[in-house]
Structure formats: structure tokens, C-alpha cells
Specification:
Elements lengths: L1 E2 L16 E7 L3 E7 L9 E10 L4 E8 L6 E5 L5 E2 L8 E5 L2 E7 L1 E9 L12 E10 L3 E10 L1
Antiparallel strand pairs: 1-2, 2-3, 3-4, 4-10, 5-9, 6-11, 7-10, 8-9, 11-12
Length: 153
């Protein structure tokens, strides 16, 4: 797992202001990373973290309802005590028709945002790491399972 501690520019899509990449991993045809809208959190604060998937040309991943074929991307979190995470806020997918089957998918890149809440008892200055495993199905003419263990501090 590669860890990145640099701040990058503004990401206007989905309203994430400043994006801080944390870690990324690549499957065969999809790169995954976590990005956050904030650099620090306060006790009780809600904030967003997004799972960004970047697919090779002509490859795609799936929406929450994949349609006739496919499997939705998922995220399993190992959160510090007291933290809560909500499910993905799925952006609108693309309509893909292949061989008479209709799927709802994302091509090239998608950012799947999630809302988190820090516990009210969080001690200011505490370093917090959010860890999880992302899983997806990446498809072109064939489909392959993909996954990545990711973390953001």
C-alpha cells in the first residue's frame, strides 16, 4: 500500500472542497484511493470521505443497482471507536448496453462519497486513521473482481 501525504488542488465534482489523497492501490484495471474534504476534524463533526475509482480506458465498475449484470462497489470499514460511517451517496450512473443486457455503471472515474461522524468525545489533536477494504467488479469484455485495502489519516 502506497501512502500519499500531499495536499492536491480543488475537486469541484460532488462538492468536495480540498481533497487529500491518503492511500491508493491498483487492481488489474482500476486504481482506488480515499480522499477527504477536510484536513482535520473536530469532536462530533460530520465530514465526507470519498472512494475514488479510476478505470483503464473502456473498463467500468457498477452502481448500487448494477442492472442486468454486475456487482455494486462496496466498502467494509475498520473504524476507530465512536466513529460512524454512512453508506455511499451514489452519483448518477451511465447506462451501458452490451449484448442486450443493460447495466448501470461508471467509466473512467467515479467518486463515491460517504459521510462520517467523529465521536463527541474525540480529544483534539488525536491522530485518527480510517481503514477499510473496497471491493468492486471491473469489466470490459470480461469481468474481474478488484479490491484494495485503504487508509486515510
Amino acid at each position: 500500500m502506497k501512502t500519499i501525504w500531499l495536499r492536491v488542488g480543488l475537486l469541484t465534482w460532488l462538492g468536495l472542497a480540498s481533497v487529500i489523497p491518503a492511500s491508493d492501490a491498483a487492481a488489474q484495471h482500476t486504481q482506488a484511493e480515499l480522499v477527504a474534504e477536510v484536513e482535520s476534524i473536530a469532536p462530533g463533526q460530520t465530514f465526507r470521505v470519498g472512494l475514488r475509482l479510476r478505470m483503464d480506458s473502456h473498463w467500468h465498475t457498477y452502481w448500487t443497482n448494477p442492472g442486468d449484470a454486475g456487482l455494486a462497489t462496496s466498502m467494509e470499514w475498520e473504524l476507530p471507536e465512536g466513529f460512524e460511517a454512512w453508506p455511499f451517496a451514489w452519483p448518477a450512473p451511465e447506462w451501458l448496453e452490451v449484448g442486450g443486457l443493460v447495466s448501470f455503471a461508471y467509466e473512467e472515474e467515479v467518486l463515491l462519497p460517504m459521510v462520517f461522524q467523529a465521536p463527541a468525545e474525540l480529544v483534539p489533536g488525536t491522530e485518527v486513521e480510517l481503514r477499510g477494504k473496497a471491493s468492486w467488479l471491473e469489466c470490459k469484455e470480461m469481468c474481474l473482481p478488484g479490491s484494495a485495502s485503504l487508509a486515510i489519516t
